[in-house]
């Protein structure tokens, strides 16, 4: 066996070598707890596992009362947003190999609910305020006059103008990473502004002025402090801060 072949075989073996990881999870059960508290669980894992797999292990084999949201498990629904080692991420997109300590050291991963939204149980937060802000910016196509007799034509350049903000999956990672939102939940938040941007700059839409008026409110885009937390937290790679700045410029110059 050549050296290269031996190295490849060793790497493949390492990928499937079982390891033990400690999950330090912020637990809260409103029926018995007055305050959240940390609990630790030793969980078997492989380097190729997603963090979501380990959360399932805790629920299925250690503590069935453990609560968290999840749905598609493929980074599309946005349900399993949580703080992982202090950073907002989707548990289904985080691979163990990216979290393991080097040189075989014991790995401890801290997991907590996203900030700024009331914790209902464990990692399960109340998303109602988040979706109220989303609905408030009218996230749908607004047109006036008679319906067209064929599809609404749009050039590729016009489509590209708002392409980035169509990627939002409403996971709340950006909004719950925002210091302004932590301190004042009445702020619309990055996700609502991103979804307003998606329609404000859509050439087929005729409701831009309405949305700009909504976001010109005291709790709208002017609350943004440009910390870039939202952009860093977005699991879809959306340039959130850039979108917010474009909405601000549209308000300043009344030009879409």
UniProtKB/TrEMBL annotation:
<dbReference type="InterPro" id="IPR017896">
    <property type="entry name" value="4Fe4S_Fe-S-bd"/>
</dbReference>
<comment type="similarity">
    <text>Belongs to the succinate dehydrogenase/fumarate reductase iron-sulfur protein family.</text>
</comment>
<protein>
    <recommendedName>
        <fullName>succinate dehydrogenase</fullName>
        <ecNumber>1.3.5.1</ecNumber>
    </recommendedName>
</protein>
<keyword id="KW-0003">3Fe-4S</keyword>
<dbReference type="Pfam" id="PF13085">
    <property type="entry name" value="Fer2_3"/>
</dbReference>
<keyword id="KW-0816">Tricarboxylic acid cycle</keyword>
<keyword id="KW-0004">4Fe-4S</keyword>
<dbReference type="InterPro" id="IPR025192">
    <property type="entry name" value="Succ_DH/fum_Rdtase_N"/>
</dbReference>
<dbReference type="InterPro" id="IPR009051">
    <property type="entry name" value="Helical_ferredxn"/>
</dbReference>
<dbReference type="InterPro" id="IPR017900">
    <property type="entry name" value="4Fe4S_Fe_S_CS"/>
</dbReference>
<keyword id="KW-0408">Iron</keyword>
<keyword id="KW-0560">Oxidoreductase</keyword>
<dbReference type="InterPro" id="IPR004489">
    <property type="entry name" value="Succ_DH/fum_Rdtase_Fe-S"/>
</dbReference>
<dbReference type="InterPro" id="IPR050573">
    <property type="entry name" value="SDH/FRD_Iron-Sulfur"/>
</dbReference>
<feature type="domain" description="4Fe-4S ferredoxin-type">
    <location>
        <begin position="158"/>
        <end position="180"/>
    </location>
</feature>
<dbReference type="InterPro" id="IPR012675">
    <property type="entry name" value="Beta-grasp_dom_sf"/>
</dbReference>
<keyword id="KW-0411">Iron-sulfur</keyword>
<dbReference type="InterPro" id="IPR036010">
    <property type="entry name" value="2Fe-2S_ferredoxin-like_sf"/>
</dbReference>
<keyword id="KW-0001">2Fe-2S</keyword>
<dbReference type="Pfam" id="PF13183">
    <property type="entry name" value="Fer4_8"/>
</dbReference>
<keyword id="KW-0479">Metal-binding</keyword>
């Amino acid at each position: 066996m050549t050296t290269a072949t031996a190295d490849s075989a060793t790497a493949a073996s390492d990928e499937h070598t079982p390891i033990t990881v400690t999950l330090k999870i912020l637990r809260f059960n409103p029926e018995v707890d007055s305050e959240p508290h940390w609990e630790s669980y030793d969980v078997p894992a492989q380097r190729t596992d997603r963090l979501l797999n380990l959360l399932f292990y805790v629920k299925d084999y250690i503590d069935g009362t453990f609560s968290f949201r999840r749905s598609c498990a493929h980074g599309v629904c946005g349900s399993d947003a949580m703080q992982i080692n202090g950073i907002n991420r989707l548990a289904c997109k985080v691979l163990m190999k990216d979290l393991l300590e080097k040189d075989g050291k014991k790995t401890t991963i801290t997991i907590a609910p996203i900030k700024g939204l009331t914790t209902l149980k464990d990692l399960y937060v109340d998303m109602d305020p988040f979706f109220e802000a989303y609905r408030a910016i009218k996230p749908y196509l607004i047109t006036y006059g008679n319906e067209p007799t064929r599809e609404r034509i749009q050039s590729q350049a016009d489509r590209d103008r708002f392409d980035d903000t169509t990627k939002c999956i409403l996971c709340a990672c950006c909004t719950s990473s925002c210091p302004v939102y932590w301190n004042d939940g009445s702020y619309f938040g990055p996700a609502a502004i991103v979804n307003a941007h998606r329609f404000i700059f859509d050439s087929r839409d005729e409701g831009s002025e309405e949305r700009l008026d909504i976001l010109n409110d005291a709790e709208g885009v002017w609350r943004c402090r440009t910390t870039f937390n939202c952009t860093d937290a977005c699991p879809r790679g959306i340039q959130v801060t850039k979108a917010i700045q474009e909405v601000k410029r549209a308000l300043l110059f009344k030009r879409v």
